[in-house]
């Protein structure tokens, strides 16, 4: 079965990931325009084919054009990708709304849950940009490696209408996958938008937990436990929202989680690592203001879980440390001494943990 890509694509957001995605689409052959606010960055992309602020030492394709004029950026676009931090999705959607060509599909490339509403990022976009098919492109990706043409895989997820199922080659999910796929960049297709988005949002919080334990001096056993049980938290929240548990075992769940939790290249992992080493939050990243999606979403994800009655103990632990002033050692020692449970949900067992309080206290001191 053959399918055709979009011939023209606009990418909103000239940060590292937006630039990397725009470069990928340009290399794949789409007429690609990248929009950003910084005139200096725009000029550098157009004149030098580089973005030294966000992707130093990465050469961009000469066919990639950039502009700070949003109307110009969107004129004639067949599809749109919005690639900005999760907290900026609503405001950026408002900016682009007057200029988006009627009915074109929109892929939101931000991972998180809006604090005020509990909405997924695509739900925020649907409110601000009605009458457009809205989906996501997500997966285990570091922008720099993508820009350098390292083999990379993502998933393109949109709801499938009846017409999409009759002719999947014309669906937005397939056409985005075709638009982005190159010899080194491979896109898969999904119709489980909720499952894909939950995986992308929750993995950042789990990565902070992994970083905290790494910073406290623990290693592979601890990280493997957090990753595996973090997957279960992803599955539980996705299922509660109507997503499929199996989606979480794919690229946007396990794939993204394993990447983010295993490398200090991830800002989420790096924040946790510094906190685990005893560095105060205001002194992390050498005192620079760095947006860390997992930090923002630790609260919004657990707020949503509370409303749905979903247990997410690892995410709760991260929230308690970040927002409630909880001692990290005591918090993670309590996490490990929770009641003994069965791993298969169907067994539905729970037994009081046998560890004595003084042993738990000693473990907490070791973590701290």
DSSP strand tally? 10
Number of helices in the DSSP assignment = 16
Q: Let me know the average pLDDT.
A: 97
Q: Give the radius of gyration.
A: 21 Å
Class per helix and strand makeup: alpha/beta
Strand order of the largest sheet: 3-2-1-4-5-6-7-8
Helix percentage range: 40-55%
The rough form would be described as: globular
Task: List the helices and strands in order.
Answer: EHEHEHEHEHEHEHHEHHHHHHHEEH
Largest sheet: 8 strands, mixed
What this model shows, in words?
With about 375 residues, the chain is α/β, with parallel strands linked by helices. About 45% of the residues lie in helices and about 10% in strands. The protein contains 16 helices and ten strands. It has helices spanning about 15-30, 40-50, 70-75, 90-95, 120-130, 145, 160-165, 170-180, 195-215, 220-240, 250-260, 265-275, 295-310, 315-325, 330-335, 355-365, and strands at about 10, 30-35, 65, 80, 105-110, 135-140, 150-155, 185-190, 340, 350. The strands form two sheets. An eight-stranded mixed beta sheet has the order 3-2-1-4-5-6-7-8, with helices on both faces. It has a two-stranded antiparallel ribbon with strand order 9-10. Strand 9 and strand 10 form a beta hairpin. Helix 9 (about 195-215) packs parallel to helix 12 (about 265-275), helix 9 packs across helix 14 (about 315-325) and helix 10 (about 220-240) packs antiparallel against helix 11 (about 250-260). The longest helix has 23 residues, at about 195-215. The protein is globular.
């Amino acid at each position: 079965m053959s399918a055709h890509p979009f011939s023209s694509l606009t990418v909103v957001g000239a940060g590292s990931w937006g630039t990397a995605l725009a470069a990928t689409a340009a290399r794949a052959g789409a007429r690609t325009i990248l929009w950003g606010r910084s005139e200096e960055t725009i000029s550098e992309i157009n004149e030098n084919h580089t973005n030294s602020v966000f992707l130093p030492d990465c050469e961009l394709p000469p066919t990639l054009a950039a502009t700070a004029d949003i109307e110009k950026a969107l004129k004639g676009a067949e599809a749109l990708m919005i690639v900005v931090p999760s907290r900026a999705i609503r405001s950026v959607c408002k900016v682009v709304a007057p200029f988006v060509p009627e009915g074109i599909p929109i892929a939101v490339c931000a991972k998180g849950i809006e604090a005020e509403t509990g909405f997924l990022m695509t739900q925020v976009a649907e409110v601000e940009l009605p009458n457009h098919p809205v989906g996501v492109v997500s997966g285990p990706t570091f922008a720099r490696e993508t820009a350098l043409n390292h083999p990379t895989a993502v998933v393109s997820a949109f709801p499938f209408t009846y017409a999409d199922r009759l002719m999947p080659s014309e669906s937005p999910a397939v056409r985005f996958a075709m638009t982005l796929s190159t010899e080194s960049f491979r896109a898969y297709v999904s119709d489980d938008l909720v499952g894909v988005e939950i995986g992308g949002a929750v993995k950042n919080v789990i990565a902070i937990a992994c970083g905290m334990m790494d910073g406290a001096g623990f290693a592979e056993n601890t990280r493997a436990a957090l990753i595996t049980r973090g997957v279960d938290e992803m599955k539980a929240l996705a299922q509660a929202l109507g997503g499929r548990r199996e989606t979480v075992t794919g690229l946007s769940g396990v794939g993204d989680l394993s990447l983010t939790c295993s490398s200090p290249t991830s800002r989420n992992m790096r924040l946790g690592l510094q906190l685990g080493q005893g560095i105060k939050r205001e002194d992390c990243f050498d005192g620079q203001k760095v947006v860390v999606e997992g930090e923002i979403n630790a609260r919004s994800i657990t707020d949503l879980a509370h409303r749905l009655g979903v247990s997410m103990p690892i995410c709760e632990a991260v929230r308690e440390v970040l927002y409630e002033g909880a001692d990290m050692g005591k918090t993670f020692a309590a996490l490990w001494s929770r009641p003994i449970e069965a791993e298969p949900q169907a067994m539905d067992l729970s037994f009081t943990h046998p560890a004595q309080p003084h042993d738990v206290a000693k473990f907490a001191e070791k973590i701290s």
